[in-house]
C-alpha cells in the first residue's frame, strides 16, 4: 500500500499577508475553508487534503518554520532580516526559494518636516532614531557612517518624533498616508520589502514531492 500523503503545514499571518497570499493559494490549488477574520481557530483546514494553514503573528512565522512547527510560511523581508539578526546574522537554516512579490512596501527614514535630516547627517550630529527594526536601522546608519542612538519601539513609531522621543523613525511605508496624517516626511528610502516563501529544509527532504509541488505552484503563481 502506498503511504498516505504527509500533511503540509503553512504558516501565515492574518491581515495583509493572508489577504495578499489568497490569490497565490488559489492558483496553487489551495482553498482555505475558514475566514481568518471570522473564526477563532488558529489551524485552518483547506479543500486540499494535504495542506493546512496555521495562523501566527507575522514576526513568529520564521520561528515556526525554523523549528518545524510549520513546514513553510510567508514572511516579509523586514521580519526575516530582523529575525536573522536576532540569531546572530545566520539565515537560521531557513530556505527562501521564492519572492512572492506580495505585501510590498519599503522601509524608510522619516522625520518631522521641520527637522533638517540632511544637515544633521552632514554635520555628523548624533541622531535619535526610534524603530521596531533596530537591526535594519543600525546597519543602515553604520553603512552611512552616521552616529545614532536607537530606541526600540514595538508600534506607533510615528509618535516618537511628535513627542520628542526621537528625531527620526525607521518604519515601513506603503502609500505614505500614515506619515502624512502624522505630519512626517520620508527623507530616505532604505530598501524595498516584499514577502518571501520561507521553507524548512528538513521538511523539504522528508516530504520532498508534495513540498516541491507546492513551492513550484507558488513560484508559478508569483511569476
Ligand atoms: O500587526 P502585528 O503586530 O501582528 O504584526 P505586523 O505589524 O508585523 O504584521 P502586519 O500584518 O501589519 O504586516 C505584515 C507584513 O506586511 C510586514 O512585515 C511587511 O512585510 C508587510 N507590509 C506591507 C506592511 C505594510 N505594507 C505597511 N504599510 N506592514 C506594515 N505596514 C504599516 C506600517 O508599519 C505603517 O504603520 O502600515 C503603515 C504605513 O502604511 P501607509 O500605507 O500609510 O504608508
Ligand atoms: Mg501591523
Question: If you had to describe this structure to a student in words, what would you say it looks like?
Answer:
It contains 9 helices and 11 strands. It is α/β, with parallel strands linked by helices and 223 residues long. The chain folds into 2 domains: 8-103 and 194-222, 3-Layer(aba) Sandwich (D-Maltodextrin-Binding Protein, domain 2), CATH 3.40.190.10; 105-192, D-Maltodextrin-Binding Protein, domain 2. It has a 6-stranded mixed beta sheet with strand order 2-3-1-4-11-5, sandwiched between helices. A 5-stranded mixed beta sheet has the order 8-7-9-6-10. Helix 5 (134-144) links the parallel strand 7 and strand 8 (148-152). The longest helix is centred in the last third of the chain and has 15 residues, at 208-222. The protein is elongated and about 75 Å long. The mean pLDDT is 95. The structure holds phosphoribosyl ATP and magnesium ion.
